[in-house]
Specification:
This protein is α+β, with helices and mostly antiparallel strands. It has a single domain (2-164), classed as D-Maltodextrin-Binding Protein, domain 2 (3-Layer(aba) Sandwich), CATH 3.40.190. It has helices spanning 2-5, 67-77, 98-102, 149-164; strands at 11-15, 24-39, 58-62, 85-90, 108-110, 123-125, 132-142. The strands form two sheets. Strands 1, 2, 5, 6 and 7 form a five-stranded antiparallel β-sheet that branches. Strand 3 (58-62), helix 2 (67-77) and strand 4 (85-90) form a beta-alpha-beta unit. It starts with a helix and ends with a helix.
């Protein structure tokens, strides 16, 4: 939200926070499922059944300023576990970690539908309690900011696409 509020971006697609600042407008896009993933040949993958089994693993995760990262950490701390051990963090989409996860023993998060696409090849969902969750996505813009006609068209097209597609 800070990037949007300070004018570094005019429009963002992001997980919806618990409360949206008064100076920000948004439209809902629908739920996004996130799943803990590892490479198919991860040497310890067969032993991963609970969040506790993942506490010694190293992770490639979104930057700490992003809601996806905060929600991942909350999954661990809510059950009395330390947050994931971070080896790599980035502001890029978790999907961008596919190549890194495929060729390392790091764990990560991504939408399950990505596992069926080229970006998810060689990765598998870790199944078990707490390994998947949903968050609402939304598109945001400053209430008092200028949105060019192309930005408005893009916003409207994204909303329409999300209404017709299971994100």
């Amino acid at each position: 939200m800070a990037v949007l509020q300070n004018g570094d971006a005019d429009l963002i697609l992001a997980a919806r926070p618990t409360s949206v600042p008064e100076d920000v407008c948004c439209l809902p896009l629908g739920p996004l499922t996130m799943q803990i993933v590892a490479r198919s040949q991860h040497p310890r993958r067969a032993r991963f059944h609970t969040l506790a089994d993942l506490t010694e693993e190293r992770w490639a995760v979104p930057a700490s300023s992003l809601y996806l990262r905060q929600w991942l950490e909350e999954r661990f701390t809510a059950v009395g576990l330390p947050p994931p051990r971070v080896a790599v963090e980035s502001t890029a989409s978790p999907v961008a970690f596919g190549e890194l996860l495929r060729y390392s023993d790091l764990l990560g998060i991504m939408p399950p539908r990505i596992l069926k696409q080229a970006e998810g090849q060689g990765l598998e969902a870790i199944e078990g309690p707490g390994m998947a969750w949903q968050h609402e996505l939304a598109i945001f813009w400053r209430a008092d900011g200028y949105l060019s006609p192309i930005c408005q068209d893009f916003r409207d097209a994204v909303v329409k696409w999300c209404e017709q597609t299971d994100i």
